[in-house]
């Protein structure tokens, strides 16, 4: 792979068919890819220094690999088999929010493969990578898919980094507007993984209270009041998140990069702007250069695309 900022993405992710009216649909990735490639083309055509970050993006098709061993570190094998069988029968609704099609099981495994290939890159290169995938993962529990999620990509990647990549301590920062109940439940028992979540208080799935601190004091939940914006995030980052993460001393960081805390997102009520994710990225880079970003939520197409771009721009410029 040539040098640059790798984005692990496959057009096949569009085949996880949830229906055009479902908020977690293929248009989300299409919007991001078109925006990023548009920035790349403008840079190639004009050579604007402002878009030089886009010239660093390298698109990587995830390699097909056997990830079942890695998946089964966190998920029950019976649950995995049930997803496979459900997809083979054509799919349908796992619950009121979570949809599978005939290709969803295979694509959930491909999404895991993309996260793990990105983790390989981060470990080997000592720099950042982005897994631009669907379905998302941070709500998926050990034996249950929910909240649009089938497999817990971030938790799988965290355990993989410890087991296969030589990481000693892994920190997960979840900045999705919804609490990552699945991720927390699948990592809080491991003292070598820390989980920190910014999320809207009292939003779906109703978990993530400040009193949830993990089995080893390795969980920090930061519920944000509706209407909170960058100033509120900055205050809590400086006072709580940064000391927690710095004190944990991770040598590998995973960001559950949901972008539904933007003011224009239809599923929540926080007020971040796309450029605020650039600031969050800069804060993460002050902790470690080894960061794996993986897509979670974000349902306003334009805000999602601009927010992903802000993350990549600041990662490239901060490298």
Automatic annotation (TrEMBL):
Matches recorded under Pfam families: Hist_deacetyl
Chain ranges of the Histone deacetylase domain: 22-313
Top-level division of the source organism's lineage: Bacteria
Biological-process GO terms, alphabetical: epigenetic regulation of gene expression
Record SUPFAM superfamilies: Arginase/deacetylase
GO molecular function, one term: histone deacetylase activity
Similarity-based family: Belongs to the histone deacetylase family.
Name of the protein in question: Deacetylase
Lineage: Bacteria, Bacillati, Cyanobacteriota, Cyanophyceae, Leptolyngbyales
């Amino acid at each position: 792979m040539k040098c640059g900022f790798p984005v692990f993405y496959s057009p096949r992710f569009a085949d996880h068919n949830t229906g055009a009216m479902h908020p977690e649909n293929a248009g989300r990735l299409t919007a991001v890819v078109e925006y990023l490639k548009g920035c790349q083309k403008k840079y190639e055509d004009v050579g604007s220094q402002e878009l030089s970050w886009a010239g660093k993006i390298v698109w990587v098709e995830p390699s097909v690999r056997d990830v079942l061993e890695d998946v089964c570190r966190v998920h029950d094998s019976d649950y995995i088999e049930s997803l496979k069988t459900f997809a083979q029968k054509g799919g349908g609704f796992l619950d009121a929010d979570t949809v599978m099609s005939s290709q969803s099981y295979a694509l959930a495994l491909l999404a895991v493969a993309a996260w793990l290939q990105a983790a390989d890159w981060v470990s080997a290169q000592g720099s950042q990578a982005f897994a631009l995938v669907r379905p998302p993962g941070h709500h998926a529990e050990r034996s249950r898919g929910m909240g649009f999620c089938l497999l817990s990509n971030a938790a799988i990647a965290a355990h993989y980094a410890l087991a296969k990549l030589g990481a000693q301590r892994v920190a997960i920062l979840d900045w999705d507007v919804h609490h990552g109940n699945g991720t927390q439940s699948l990592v809080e028992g491991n003292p070598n993984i820390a989980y920190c979540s910014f999320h809207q208080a009292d939003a779906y799935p109703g978990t993530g209270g400040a009193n949830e601190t993990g089995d080893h004091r390795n969980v920090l939940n930061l519920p944000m009041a509706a209407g909170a914006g960058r100033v509120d995030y900055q205050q809590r980052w400086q006072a709580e998140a940064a000391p927690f993460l710095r004190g944990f001393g991770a040598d590998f960081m995973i960001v559950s990069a949901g972008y539904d805390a933007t003011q224009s997102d239809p599923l929540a009520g926080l007020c971040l702007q796309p450029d605020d994710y650039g600031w969050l990225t800069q804060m993460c880079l002050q902790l470690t250069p080894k960061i794996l970003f993986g897509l979670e939520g974000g349902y306003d197409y334009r805000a999602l695309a601009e927010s992903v771009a802000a993350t990549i721009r600041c990662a490239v410029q901060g490298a």
